[in-house]
Amino acid sequence: MAAAAATQGRRAPPSWERARREGGAIFTQGAGGGVAKMSRPVQARRLEGVDKNIWVEFVKLAATYSTVNLGQGFPDFPPPDFLKEEFTRALSGEKHMLHQYTRAFGHPPLVKILAQLFGKLLGRDLDPMTNVMVTVGAYQALFCCFQAFVDEGDEVIIIEPFFDCYEPMVKMAGGTPVFIPLRPKAPKDRKLMSSADWQLDPAELASKFSERTKAIVLNSPNNPLGKVFSREELELIADLCVKHDALCISDEVYEWLVYDGKEHVRIASLRGMWDRTVSIGSAGKTFSVTGWKVGWTVGPNRLLQHIRTVHQNSVYHCATAAQEVVAQGFQREFEHYGKPDSYFVQLPKEMQQKRDQLVQSLVAVGMKPIVPEGTYFLVADISEFKSDVPDVPNSDEPYDSRFAKWMVKNKGLAAIPLSAFYCGPHKNNYNSFIRFCFAKEEATLKAADDILQKWKLEKTTP
């Protein structure tokens, strides 16, 4: 009785009371067979505000309505033959240990060839055991970086538009995202805008750095815009990183997909940047095998040692067979580097043709594509289509989001709204664009063109 009275008189912690008010209760089986109400909140605070994901909604819409999916960023064509052959050999051969655990921080053949290749590209000797770490895709590499480097109160600069996971990952680590947009400038003597016309304002960028800045996230070539940052732009970022002693998390997963003779400059190669940069890569984007989920980080041991700590206490290990095959693929490419039969030479040529094909299709229907310098994405201006999908004043949903939903439901063509790649307060600043993926087979792009041509005919027919 006394114990019961004491329990009844005890005040519940404030968080429990908040859970009651917000409806976060759980019902459990009581000792006497009845139902007991549990007031303790189950969701960790780090998950607050990061539960929504644009891909969940639009993937479902595409699966339900679309005839042609140019929304999600994955190729629908096969990987190169030499890689498929290596995959078959790895699974059916006599190397039965490929079905077991390998080194936690990266399969030795893979980290060795990565160190060899990127050492050549960066102009320095890399230790495969300390300067390279393999991850479950570039996504896990990003997560490990934010967990390893970002503390409560740290600020992380994110360039908009940005790959959507950057913001929630920074927040989950306890950091504060600080956003700066690439601002479009009217092209000179060109009918179509290029991704190069979207630029940082140097003074505005400098104003975002402070004593609280822990890192800046760089994505070049940029998803969704396809912008390839020039050497001059990267030097501006590098100088600010050195001045403010900030890290650079460099997402370079589209490093081999650069067009029109553009150069992909690795920021880690610039003066003062090796010691403060983690470069992230992806076999999925490199070899057109997004489902294999093999990524990596390259950088100085003083940074990678902390990423290894996160990795060993979370994922710990990546699929051995996939790493073996990717290692063989890189070995082949290292031997053919710069030669006409190199996949790294052939793929961007093929992708540039696909890009140009989609540009022509979009122009024909009245959209205004922004010609990308890299990646396999293309952003198009849909301002001329408000007669098809009228704007709704004071709507909480950005116009491009409503347009993309209308297009997939009524035209069978899936794309992603550009506003999904901006922070909440900025979503309506750039809400007249949608993103298409052109890493598709000829038949897929032809089907998309058929939809657009039919749409054009409907618009012009009285």
Summarize the structure.
The chain has 462 residues and is an alpha/beta fold. It has helices at residues 2-9, 14-21, 54-65, 81-92, 108-122, 137-149, 166-172, 202-208, 231-243, 283-287, 301-312, 320-335, 343-365, 399-410, 442-460, and strands at 26-29, 35-38, 68-69, 132-135, 155-160, 176-181, 183-184, 198-199, 213-219, 247-251, 277-282, 295-298, 368-370, 377-381, 413-414, 416-417, 433-437.
The DSSP helix count reads 15
User: Unreliable stretches, pLDDT < 50, 5 or more residues?
Assistant: 1-23
Query: Could you say which overall geometry the principal axes of the C-alpha atoms support?
Result: globular
In spatial order, strands of the major sheet run 4-12-11-10-9-5-6
Mean pLDDT: 91
Radius of gyration: 25 Å
**Count of individual beta strands:** 17
State the helicity in percent bands: 25-40%
Termini gap:
84 Å
Structural class: alpha/beta
Describe the biggest sheet? Answer: 7 strands, mixed
| Range of strand content | 5-15%
Structural write-up:
This protein has 462 residues and is of the alpha/beta class. The chain is built from 15 helices and 17 strands. It has helices at 2-9, 14-21, 54-65, 81-92, 108-122, 137-149, 166-172, 202-208, 231-243, 283-287, 301-312, 320-335, 343-365, 399-410, 442-460; strands at residues 26-29, 35-38, 68-69, 132-135, 155-160, 176-181, 183-184, 198-199, 213-219, 247-251, 277-282, 295-298, 368-370, 377-381, 413-414, 416-417, 433-437. A 7-stranded mixed beta sheet has the order 4-12-11-10-9-5-6, sandwiched between helices. A 4-stranded antiparallel beta sheet has the order 13-14-17-16, with helices on one face. A two-stranded antiparallel sheet has the order 1-2. α5 runs parallel beside α12 and α13 packs parallel to α15 (442-460). It is globular. The termini are far apart.
